[in-house]
Amino acid sequence: MTRHADAATRRSQITDALLGVVADLGLQRTTLTDVATRAGVSVGMVQRYFRNKDELLRFGIAHVFERAEQRVLAIEPARPLRNYVGALMRTVLPLDAERERELRFWLNFLHVALTDTETSATHERATAGLLDGVTRALSAARQHGELARETDPVAEASALVAFVDGLCLHHALAPAAFPTRSLEEALETYLDRLFLIR
């Protein structure tokens, strides 16, 4: 393995450990020692790639958004576009252990994004990308008669993304009321009301 590949592997290993620790302990209680222990490396090894906790945490949130973007890009646009939009939104929902962990990590970061300009910019870019993709899909759906002509794709994209974010938030904080199995059902109900065809 090349030195570059080894460095990339180490960063990924450390980032995966970070996501798990923050999901389990919360952002404030997470230390570099916790991350190093979870990753099975020394604290010095963590600091070789990330100078401090803030740098590690910023990389972590960028990593979460990058994974989400990769999931979105893996979905091929196809008609009916209702199914495509549903598939896009399911990439955001915590439907497996990996996305559950990423959700908990993201929620820990929301308050940081309120005051940290770099984290806020990362969040805004990711959100803008998702909104743009959903807006374009809804515009195409309207053009193909899957949505009513009076539907505003921009407004509906914002509403749909906010709805899915709300599902994620309530699932994380009230899992008994919003269990994993109900998330897709709620999304399907929403899409049934938005689209003219099923």
Automatic annotation (TrEMBL):
Keywords: DNA-binding, Repressor, Transcription, Transcription regulation. This is DNA-binding transcriptional regulator, AcrR family. One of its GO terms (molecular function) is DNA-binding transcription factor activity. The lineage of its organism: Bacteria, Bacillati, Actinomycetota, Actinomycetes, Mycobacteriales. It comes from the Bacteria.
